[in-house]
Amino acid sequence: MNLSNQRRVSASILEVGKKKVWFDNERLDEIKEAITRADLVKLMNENAIQKRPDKGTSRVRARKKIIQRRKGRQQGPGHKKGKQTARLSKKAKWMILVRVLRRFIKELKDKELVESKIYRELYLKTKGGFFRSKRHIKLYMNEHGMFKKK
Question: What's the pTM value of the predicted model, to 2 decimals?
Answer without folding.
Answer: 0.55
